[in-house]
Design brief:
The protein is of the alpha/beta class. It has 9 helices and 17 strands.
């Protein structure tokens, strides 16, 4: 059997703008650096508020679009320098790691790159095959590109919403689906910054999806977003929770069964939403101000991304975690842990 001749992994992390400048490319600043303050949820427990405090202020670097001559793209959108020795860390995510660290630095199975002539744009990002990372990080990259800005696009394009968005955007070139261990070297590589949780990203998403508002009916004013068909992060006591919610007029939704327009309009027309932490809550971007959001967490994985999104959308956000002596955490390997709803907490959140 013929063995694959792998190429060395990158040895350092750098900023995309620096790599583009060194390679003789260019950088266009689309948005200045900024600091976004996220108000702590008023209806959260003191314990949860204290935990979220560290994430209440976020500094965003400038949003840009860069041209990187000879730039490389590996796997789910990791961007490398033309010689493959540096990784553009600000557009190549590795969650939970410092800027100077990335899993690719120790990865020994990078195949030789396939050359792509002309101009290629990359919008694919880590976990962009999942709805939340696609909607909030990858789709804004597409919206930063003109439809005729490149001959081809490297993107996560397998899901219905992702394909639909590329078609709606009017991108004129071909699409290469991002896939594990694919490695390309591009004659000219166009790289937009990742989407970030700030007002400009939400405004761009709202404008882009405006024509989908009203394209499908709402699903009622009270929604329960179920994960009983998901492979992880299910609610262990969902029958008991659903008995409580159904008695209060809630409708149960499995978002994986809905079209993009149906998801958008379900959230846009809701007044109360109860859900365990999960990708479907990225649809909070479509909620009307003051919508009540009750998010259920496992104590070992309290991820505040949807709290930050709720602040930007001016939603009535209420995070719930069961009482316990176990400290709150956002441990990455706990993101698959099932959630147990504290029914008394849910009742109080619904009534207040």
């Amino acid at each position: 059997m013929k063995q694959t001749a792998y190429v060395p992994p990158p040895t350092t992390c750098a900023l995309l703008a620096d790599l583009a400048t060194r390679a003789g490319g260019w950088v266009t600043i689309r948005e200045k650096e900024s600091v976004v303050e996220y108000a702590l949820p008023g209806h959260a427990s003191a314990e949860v508020r204290d935990f979220l405090q560290a994430r209440a202020s976020v500094q965003f670097e400038p949003a840009l679009v860069a041209r990187l001559p000879g730039g490389r793209v590996f796997g789910s959108g990791a961007v490398l320098s033309p010689d493959g020795q540096a990784i553009a860390r600000d557009v190549s995510l590795d969650f939970g790691k410092a800027f100077s660290d990335h899993w690719l630095l120790t990865y020994g199975k990078i195949p030789p790159p396939t050359p792509l002539g002309g101009t290629t744009a990359v919008i694919a990002t880590t976990l962009g095959n999942g709805y939340s990372h696609w909607l909030l990080e990858e789709l804004p990259r597409l919206l930063a590109l003109p439809p005729d800005g490149a001959e081809r696009l490297i993107a996560h394009a397998a899901s219905g919403p992702a394909r639909e968005a590329i078609e709606r955007h009017g991108f004129c070139g071909s699409v290469i689906a991002a896939r594990r261990d694919a490695h390309f070297t591009c004659e000219q590589l166009i790289v937009p910054s990742l989407g970030r949780l700030n007002a400009s990203t939400l405004a761009a998403l709202e404008k882009f999806t405006a024509s989908l508002r009203g394209a499908a009916p709402g699903r009622g004013e009270r929604l329960y977003i179920s994960r009983e068909k998901a492979r992880r992060r299910q609610v262990t006591n969902e029958p008991e929770l659903w008995a409580e919610l159904s008695a209060r007029g809630f409708v149960k939704l499995h978002l994986e069964e809905l079209s993009w327009a149906q998801q958008i309009n379900a959230f846009a027309n809701a007044k109360v939403i109860v859900a365990p932490h999960g990708a479907g809550l990225a649809n909070l971007v479509f909620c009307a101000p003051c919508t009540k959001i009750i998010e259920l967490f496992h104590r070992s994985y309290v991820n505040g991304c949807y709290w930050q999104l709720a602040v930007l959308r001016q939603l009535d956000y209420r995070p719930l975690v069961p009482d316990s002596a176990e400290p709150l955490a956002q441990t990455l390997n706990a993101n698959r842990a099932d959630v147990t709803a504290d029914l008394a907490q849910v009742r109080r959140a619904l009534q207040s």
